[in-house]
Amino acid sequence: MPEIVISAQALTKKFGAFTAVKAVSFEVTRGEILGYLGPNGSGKTTTMRMLLGLLRPTSGHASVFSFDIDRDSERIRPLVGYMSQKFALYEELNVRENLEFYGGVYGLTNSALRRRVGTVIEQVGLSGHEQSRAGQLSGGWRQRLALGIALIHQPQLLFLDEPTSGVDPEARREFWDVIYALAEQGTTIFVSTHYMDEAEYCGRLAIMNQGHLLALDTPSNLKHNVVQGNAWDIVAEPLMPALAALEKLPGVQQAGLLGDHLHAITARGTYSSEALASALQNFSPHILPAEITLEDVFMVLASKVAVI
Predict the structure, then answer these.
(1) Residue 254 CB contacts under 8 Å (≥ 6 apart), including other chains
(2) What average pLDDT does the chain have?
């Protein structure tokens, strides 16, 4: 059986009267890329900080590498790397100096430190930028350096808290190439994001909203099992009146704007493309069957939170 790296049971965190994380339970196995998807304020960072031993749970419990997060946090920290949303880089130090400093914090010295710094520079794609000051790096290169620092002590488990927030799409894709390579080498990745396209890269995906863990499965299984309907892309004019009319049709489970067209989910078997076009004939629609997206999944799940 795969080794369980993280195990959480009814993990809960309250801040006064506000409950940030509500009885969350899940497991993560070695070498897995687990995505933690949700909007800002959904409880992603709070969950991570509890697992790292930086916040004490209000109730429930969890273990990392079989160490209790409350009692054994000091034994967990050497085994994990953490890249927070606002990772602290020393702006006046260059790339190599930042890595050397943090490597020293973790106890690496002399030749071992030099070898590890060289390995990490190559691993995260910073070759040629060793002498660049951290304060002069663009967003994508700063994220690579922050990842390198989180990796400097060769952690077995890596926590990445929205690691590509604020960087361009190409840099995000390249960053994920590095994450895949790490997972192939046996590193377990726990990564939070609010980007739906990034969530597709994860082996399994946990969907969070308002502190609740709404679902946990592979992206393909979530799309197949959560959304019980058919997806449609609809080009219509004028767009907003067409959306209003679409939302009123019987059997339409959800509808919204997607770029320059509409995207809708209808109950299975209620409409063919011809029947849907007939219902929207006043808007000269062009209708095509579409793929169900993770955004569709999230909207279906989020609509259920209000009744939890």
Answers:
(1) 264, 265, 296, 299, 300, 303
(2) 93
